[in-house]
């Protein structure tokens, strides 16, 4: 099945720890995105990548880092510098960055204890 | 900057009836895309329908249709013959056309409950 997978589904982190969220796609899409969703809010863009080894900051990149070493993978690291990391994180991809339609993975719920 | 406003935080509808969800947006762009996404309790975002701003014809996908009013910057979603599986959060989203970074701008969502 073609699609986007995210793991884990639930993640717990102690304050001061870095944690990495996984996102993999087998759609052969060039562009990938990370969004954050808070209760009662829409999604906000953290980072996006148009191509391997290239990525750009979105609206709320502070406290996050990404890498894009392979076309199919775009992991997100939530660092200890992120002041309020508890949220739902969604990964998405599109055929290319100017393509109109983004497809989403199932998401990861991160809770800081 | 573009903004998307969904003025109805919650709505409910009886099964088999029709419901319309509202969305307005603010932009100075002439070419752009508009979307409705559905987020059921599983929390996966699912594309419902998309509309290109340069097309005057309203998009339709089975029981889902939109009323796109470009001059009024309005983009409402109509769900006909509502089903229990339509219960979800619905998000309206905007994306600039060519030259943009592909950033989707989301509204805050409307929680739709379909009642048996």
Can you count the helices of chain B? 0
Principal-axes shape call of chain B: globular
Sheet with most strands of chain A = 7 strands, mixed
Shape descriptor of chain A reads globular
Describe the structure in your own words.
The complex is a heterodimer of chains A (113) and B (116). With 113 residues, chain A is mainly β. Helices cover 0% and strands 50% of the residues of chain A. Chain A contains no helices and 11 strands. Chain A has strands at 4-7, 10-13, 19-25, 31-37, 43-51, 54-57, 64-66, 76-78, 87-94, 103-104, 108-112. In chain A, strands 2, 4, 5, 6, 9, 10 and 11 form a 7-stranded mixed β-sheet that branches. A 4-stranded antiparallel β-sheet of chain A has the order 1-3-8-7, with no helix packed on it. Chain B is mostly beta strands and 116 residues long. Chain B is built from no helices and 12 strands. In chain B, strands 2, 5, 6, 10, 11 and 12 form a 6-stranded mixed β-sheet that branches. In chain B, strands 3-9-8-7 form a 4-stranded antiparallel β-sheet, with no helix packed on it. In chain B, strands 1-4 form a two-stranded antiparallel sheet. Chain B starts with a strand and ends with a strand.
List keywords for this structure.
heterodimer; A: 113 residues; seven-stranded mixed beta sheet; four-stranded antiparallel beta sheet; 11 strands; 0% helix; B: 116 residues; mainly beta; 52% strand
Offer a concise description of the structure.
The complex is a heterodimer of chains A (113) and B (116). Chain A has strands spanning 4-7, 10-13, 19-25, 31-37, 43-51, 54-57, 64-66, 76-78, 87-94, 103-104, 108-112.
Question: Which helices and strands appear, and what pairs or packs with what?
Answer:
The complex is a heterodimer of chains A (113) and B (116).
Chain A (H helix, E strand, L loop, with lengths): L3 E4 L2 E4 L5 E7 L5 E7 L5 E9 L2 E4 L6 E3 L9 E3 L8 E8 L8 E2 L3 E5 L1
Parallel strand pairs in A: 2-11
Antiparallel strand pairs in A: 1-3, 3-8, 4-5, 4-9, 5-6, 7-8, 9-10, 9-11
Chain B lengths: L2 E3 L4 E5 L4 E3 L2 E3 L5 E8 L6 E7 L7 E2 L2 E6 L4 E6 L8 E9 L8 E2 L3 E6 L1
Parallel strand pairs in B: 2-12
Antiparallel strand pairs in B: 1-4, 3-9, 5-6, 5-10, 7-8, 8-9, 10-11, 10-12
């Amino acid at each position: 099945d073609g699609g986007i997978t995210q793991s884990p589904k639930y993640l717990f982190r102690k304050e001061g720890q870095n944690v990495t969220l996984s996102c993999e796609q087998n759609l052969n899409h060039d562009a990938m995105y990370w969004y954050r969703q808070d209760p009662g809010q829409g999604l906000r863009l953290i980072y996006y990548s148009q191509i391997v080894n290239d990525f750009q900051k979105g609206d709320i990149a502070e406290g996050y880092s990404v890498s894009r070493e392979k076309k199919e993978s775009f992991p997100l690291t939530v660092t200890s510098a992120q002041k309020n990391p508890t949220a739902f994180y969604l990964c998405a991809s599109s055929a290319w960055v100017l393509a109109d339609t983004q497809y989403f993975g199932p998401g990861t719920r991160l809770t800081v204890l | 900057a573009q903004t998307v406003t969904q003025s109805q935080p919650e709505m409910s509808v009886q099964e088999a009836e029709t419901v319309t969800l509202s969305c307005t947006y603010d932009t100075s762009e002439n070419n752009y895309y508009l979307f409705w996404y559905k987020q059921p309790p599983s929390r996966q975002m699912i594309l419902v329908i998309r509309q290109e701003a340069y097309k005057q014809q309203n998009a339709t996908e089975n029981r889902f249709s939109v009323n796109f009013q470009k001059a009024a910057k309005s983009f409402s979603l109509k769900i006909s013959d509502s089903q229990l599986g339509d219960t979800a959060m619905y998000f309206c989203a905007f994306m600039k056309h060519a030259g943009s970074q592909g950033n989707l701008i989301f509204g805050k969502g409307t929680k739709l409950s379909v009642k048996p």
